[in-house]
Amino acid sequence: MKTKxxxxxxxxxxxxxxxxxxxxxxxxxxxxxxxxxPILIQGKITRLEWVNPHTWVHIETTMLxxxxxxxxPADPSAEVWAVEGGTPxxxxxxxxxxxxxxxxxxxxxDGYQTKDHSIKRANGxxxxxxxxxxxFLGSSGTGAPYEAEIVQARQNEGRC
Length: 160
What we know:
Elements: H1 2-25, H2 29-32, E1 33-49, E2 56-66, E3 71-73, E4 79-84, H3 88-93, E5 106-114, E6 121-129, E7 134-136, H4 148-156
Parallel strand pairs: 4-6
Antiparallel strand pairs: 1-2, 1-5, 2-3, 2-4, 5-6, 6-7
């Protein structure tokens, strides 16, 4: 009887640990990103990571705009920033497909810098394309704007 009870308790404990582990692994916006450090990153996409739980858009830039609207030249040889977006499913529901974010595409990303400002990483709120179309990147730190008309118009024109 004691062996069965011990086995049952160990099994229940193991199951509880496996159920909670994914929750511990994920981070909140406020744990990594600074809501008081908005940033605009303008440049060309160099790489896209279309993976769960977050997409990552890597952008090569030579110019940044920070919270105080101060333009800060990056290293003249260009810096590559990693911008975190929502899940691929979130982006697809907003009308943004993987093939819209190909390397070489000129974009402007509005987002929030990491708390450690020495790291070239940000959480993306919106991405704006050269034609002026803006799409929500699924930021977990800010609310999504209503943009169904923009997405529908772009899809009707055959653009991303």
